[in-house]
Amino acid sequence: MFKNPVIKIEENDGLPGRKRLWAVIAASIALVMSVLDANIVNIVLPTLSHEFGTSPSTTIWVMNAYQLAITVSLLSFSSLGDIYGYRVVFLSGVALFCVTSLICALSTTFWMLTTARVLQGVGASAIASVNIAQLRMIYPRKYLGRGMGINAMVVAVSAVAGPSVASAILSFASWHWLFIINIPVAILALIMGLIFLPKREIRHAHRFDIPSAVANALTFGLLIYSMEGIAHHERIDFLMIQLFFLAIVGTYYIRRQLKLEIPLLPIDLLKIPIFTLSIITSICSFTAQMLAMVALPFFLQNTLGRSDVATGLLLTPWPVATLFTAPLAGYLVERMHAGILGCIGMLIFATGLYLLATVSSPSDMDIIWRMLVCGAGFGLFQTPNNSTIMSSAPTERSGGASGMMGTARLLGQTSGATLVALLFSFFPHQGGTSASLLLGAVFAVVAAVVSCLRLSQQMPLRRTR
């Protein structure tokens, strides 16, 4: 049924220096915007809950809807990029992100905002799905590792910088401007992308597998929705029906991928031990990160009485520490095994989360230095882990590896947000925050242990052919 695809590959040695710089800036602007918006609304969740009259666990859907849309569509967009071109998919995503940001800003009801966030997530998915693959077209072979290092740092910092950026915006404007600010940024990225992104790309001549795309969306959608159902104490009969269909669709999806020469879900890459272990550590690390980033705003505002702006400022040390340690980690990974760096980073991260969970009546400085510990640990881990994922996959499977890396991040973030909703329903007030941070520390320790298991694997050589 499935024949080996004919692959058409155009030789590429990257863009010349100045064009490469502008292309990287264009891609990075869009990437920062899409990753940032995953949690830029974190610190206004209490405000939105009050304004729309929704419970805290329900209000979290404003964030989960975005994550869910990206998770169910990321691999499909990655495949479409291989077939029709990364540039087309990327620019289409930027345009959709721009339009849906305007809809978010104009939303007058909770469900209007949530629906707009779903569509915004689809645009972000198109951007993220081809990001790494575009680096292969932008950078010459010998500098590809450098590009991946920069990309890893951009993602790591953007993933936790949302509250800080939100704080700056909220210091002079309402929550609507968290979305309005995306519009000129997206237009800038779109114009620069049209001008500078490479037009000559690697194209694969296989057909887009629609059944796999549908099965992928249903599998991840049912998985996440079932997790949400558990968190919100949905009726047991509904949950059983969801899990039943998840088992059927998921089994079909996996079996179909095993028959494909170029599967939508790159199962074949999981045969590489260090790749699989790095994906697992990525899921655990982002689950821990999102447990903290969702829970902390409720703690700082509802328990300590801090304002939206103050909350964002108190969360700022986390991305600042990551910004400094991520490049350091990129330097160290050339001299140390990524398994060691990952273990050390996650243990530091777990320590920071534990210290935040157990602090009582903290001053601002008590919070700030604990945030610095968390950010330093996460930055020390993330850059080497991402580089290991990409370098352990064959060069011709960069698209699949990129999609898998993005899926791992999003699955971890969505799981973390879902777990916060579950814990908040069991532990009221500050108990929910403490439980979320302690569980985050547990996930970080698990990531550290799995990272140590990579020490039995030789670090992959970077493939630049």
TrEMBL record:
Boundaries of every Major facilitator superfamily (MFS) profile domain copy: 23-459
Protein name, as recorded: MFS transporter
Subcellular location: Membrane
Pfam families hit by this protein: MFS_1
UniProt keywords, alphabetically: Membrane, Transmembrane, Transmembrane helix, Transport
InterPro entries listed in its UniProt record: MFS, MFS_dom, MFS_trans_sf
PANTHER family xrefs: MAJOR FACILITATOR SUPERFAMILY MULTIDRUG TRANSPORTER MFSC (PTHR42718)
Source organism of the structure: Coprobacter tertius
CDD domains: MFS_MMR_MDR_like (cd17321)
Segments crossing the lipid bilayer: 21-45, 65-81, 88-112, 118-138, 150-169, 175-196, 208-226, 238-254, 274-300, 312-333, 340-361, 367-385, 406-427, 433-455
SUPFAM superfamilies per record: MFS general substrate transporter
Membrane topology (UniProt): Multi-pass membrane protein
